[in-house]
Task: inverse folding
């Protein structure tokens, strides 16, 4: 059924009411950093002001230093956020899309008590020109709140593939409301085809065919329509953990499929050590990554569990399965010893 397979044990103390958090705190920190890096462009927007005004900026690419430069000059006639005090404290933020996590955000300083801020700052990205040309620049203006309740003031999105790179002059552009796709939460990262199966302890007859404890089988078949980070495609692989265990024993991964936005993995992973009651508190996390020499880039993932927000009585942020993911996990729990097939959209965890 698959060309590669791996089997590992899933072990943790089921008698404790709290999981051993200290033993995997460093692993959880790395997962948290991934989650934070792929938050929405509009995360932290607490305002309800209408977008208005204009922004003046220029774009350039420094061939010698292989650097994309966004020269943010100034804004005019921005919306007033605090009407009582008649003030806004604006700053400008930029992302390269579609993969916000890959290059990260850049932002200017905050200019206080003005709707006509002057910045004259250059936001820089170290990036190859051929990679830049398959990106979009999202430039947005925000009011900075001391308590972090920032307000969105307007944005502009630039398709860098069609940009006139001979134009290095500063130009004015009208700020627009946030795009409908972003408002509706559209964040397409691809779709994973997989099957899962739960084998309860004592369900297959006598040992050696019968496992002494339950097993969860995960068959990662393929992924369609991954984010294309390079003109040649992506070099992708899938990581798997059974949370709350983020130790090396829990970690498994597929081989890397090169230059393909529709990779076929056909990889099966078997976790033993499962008791039926563990299925309520455990979560299978599958994440897809782009492989590069220096660092890997998160592309999207899924979490299979009951999505209760709790694991062994402890509140955890990773028990956040979508309705589709919960239904898939529940079907596996009900139909033991049977492969359950699914087609689940990848998301930013």
Result:
């Amino acid at each position: 059924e698959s060309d590669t397979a791996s089997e590992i044990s899933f072990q943790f103390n089921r008698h404790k009411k709290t999981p051993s958090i200290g033993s995997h705190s460093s692993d959880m920190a790395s997962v948290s950093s991934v989650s934070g890096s792929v938050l929405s462009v509009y995360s932290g927007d607490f305002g309800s002001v209408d977008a208005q005004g204009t922004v003046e900026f220029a774009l350039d690419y420094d061939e010698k230093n292989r650097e994309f430069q966004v020269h943010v000059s100034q804004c005019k006639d921005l919306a007033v956020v605090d009407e009582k005090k008649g003030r806004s404290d604006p700053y400008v933020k930029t992302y390269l899309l579609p993969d916000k996590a890959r290059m990260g955000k850049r932002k200017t300083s905050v200019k206080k008590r003005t709707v006509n801020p002057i910045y004259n700052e250059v936001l820089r990205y170290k990036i190859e020109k051929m990679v830049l040309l398959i990106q979009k620049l999202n430039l947005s203006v925000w009011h900075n709140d001391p308590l972090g309740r920032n307000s969105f003031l307007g944005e502009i999105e630039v398709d860098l593939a069609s940009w006139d790179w001979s134009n290095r002059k500063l130009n004015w552009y009208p700020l627009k409301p946030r795009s409908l796709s972003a408002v509706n939460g559209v964040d397409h990262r691809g779709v994973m085809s997989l099957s899962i199966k739960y084998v309860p302890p004592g369900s297959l007859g006598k040992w050696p065919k019968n496992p002494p404890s339950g097993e969860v089988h995960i068959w990662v078949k393929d992924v369609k329509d991954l984010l294309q980070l390079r003109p040649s495609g992506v070099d992708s692989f899938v990581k798997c953990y059974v949370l709350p265990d983020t130790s090396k024993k829990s970690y498994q991964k597929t081989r890397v499929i090169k230059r393909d936005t529709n990779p076929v993995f056909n990889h099966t992973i078997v976790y033993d050590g499962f008791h039926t009651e563990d299925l309520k508190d455990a979560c299978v996390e599958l994440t897809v990554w782009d492989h590069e020499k220096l660092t890997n880039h998160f592309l999207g993932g899924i979490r299979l569990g009951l999505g209760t927000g709790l694991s062994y009585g402890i509140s955890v942020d990773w028990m956040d399965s979508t309705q589709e993911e919960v239904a898939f996990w529940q079907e596996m729990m009900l139909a033991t010893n049977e492969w359950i097939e699914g087609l689940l959209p990848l998301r930013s965890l």
Q: What stands out?
A: Residues 59 and 70 are 5 Å apart (CA to CA). The chain has five helices and 19 strands.
